Amino acid sequence: MLTLGVDLAAADERTAMATIEWLSDRAVVRDVVLDVGDAQIVKASQDADKVGLDCPLGWPEPFVALVTAHRSGHVTIADGDAARWRRRLAYRLTDEVVRETTGIIPLSVAADRIAHAAFRCAGLLAMLAAAGHDVDRRGDGKIVEVYPAAALCRWGLTYRGYKGRGQKAQHADLVTALCAAAPWLELGAFEALCRRSHDAFDAVVAALNARAAAIGRATRPDDEQRQVAGVEGWIALPTGPLSDLVDGTGAGGRRS
């Protein structure tokens, strides 16, 4: 099995992509690339069994309805808890699930700068679909939405404070901690790049998260959530330890 992880930014710069090959008892990082364009992502996806995109795959349904209503006239303000109403405009159902499950508050695709990456992602999803890939925003097809910070949290690793200037030491420590927690993961020639670039590191984590989704070791929307998730997107949170990725086949999955 090959999994592809993409840490998607608004532009090619700061976008990273990692490919992991899964063997019977280990996982080998075969490639890590920085400053990646859309065409490169589509091409690499051809050989991947599962692609983890670190970017919202859609917008909150109430937000889309609000913008549509506002364009043609005036919006209807919900009665009752105004703060809760505004939060539902800003955050998707899957964002709220992540908040409840991990305590992490995802960036709002409706009200934060991550929307710029989501604009790009919308075009990328169209390109992937045109190339023949099954693009299901619930993660049922080849593409799945991942969230490296939440995945690291679920795996018991540091998930805050390793990005940005002045965080090189903490970032390097996190790479060391990941290697210790997953001794079966072979970074090989790409270890130095992962230590130097948190974009590269996040791409590797996205590829690990994609594996969890591929073998049934990640959350999926339930029957009540599926319709909304199909429009807004769904973050596949790992449901077990890192060792699950090589030690078990998962529900309906396979080992390699």
Automatic annotation (TrEMBL):
Q: Name the InterPro entries for this protein.
A: DUF429
What is the name of this protein?
A: DUF429 domain-containing protein
Give the organism the record lists: Micromonospora haikouensis
The organism that produces this protein has a lineage beginning with: Bacteria, Bacillati, Actinomycetota, Actinomycetes, Micromonosporales
